[in-house]
Design goal:
5-stranded parallel beta sheet, globular, 43% helix
Length: 190
């Protein structure tokens, strides 16, 4: 909680940007991961259109670990206001693809970011995962300036124990980046 107490207050709100049209699957064909995630993003955008969240909250964005926190996130972070924009199975590249729908419209006072495990599990290299996160930071600077990002480290899990060394390499690279940037903070697994 004290970590979040240092977050800078946000000064502006921005209207929400509607998501673009999503491609439809062929009748009977299961949706691809990208199509399923796009539909989830569309639901966020529609919900925000109907009931826009207050600006200047702390934005939680990323994959299923954020999604699974949905039930207790607001209570766990109280009294700090939060927005949960985790979408299950996502990769960092998808957070980047939908940055204009998932991140920038909220003008968050801080961003808590968790993604990368699914990327490694899909066979992406450490260099690619780190490059995708670097792209996220470029987009963040362009849209939100000095807004701090809190990167939650990739975590070991029994199902992905064989990927622990690759996860550690990603964590080490992000930790090095965080040591060099005042707008990036590394949290979690050493």
């Amino acid at each position: 909680m004290s970590l979040f107490g240092r977050l800078v207050l946000c000064a502006m709100a921005l209207t929400l940007v509607p998501a673009g049209a999503r491609s439809q699957t062929q009748q009977g064909a299961p949706p691809t991961l990208e199509q399923a995630l796009g539909a989830e993003v569309d639901r966020f955008v529609e919900a925000d259109r109907l009931a826009p969240p207050a600006p200047c909250q702390v934005l939680f964005v990323g994959s299923s670990s954020i999604v699974n926190w949905k039930e207790t996130l607001a209570v766990d972070m109280a009294p700090m206001p939060v927005i949960d924009r985790g979408f299950g199975g996502s990769h960092i590249e998808y957070v980047n693809r939908w940055f204009d729908q998932l991140v920038s419209p909220y003008r968050p006072r801080a961003i808590v970011f968790y993604a990368g495990e699914n990327d490694i599990d899909a066979g992406k290299s450490v260099a690619r995962v780190v490059a995708d996160f670097d792209e996220f930071m470029v987009r963040k600077i362009r849209a939100l300036g000095k807004t701090p990002v809190y990167f939650i480290s990739l975590k070991p899990s029994p199902l992905r124990l064989a990927q622990l060394s690759l996860q550690t390499q990603v964590n080490d690279a992000i930790r090095v980046h965080a040591a060099r940037r005042p707008d990036l903070h590394y949290m979690g697994f050493p």
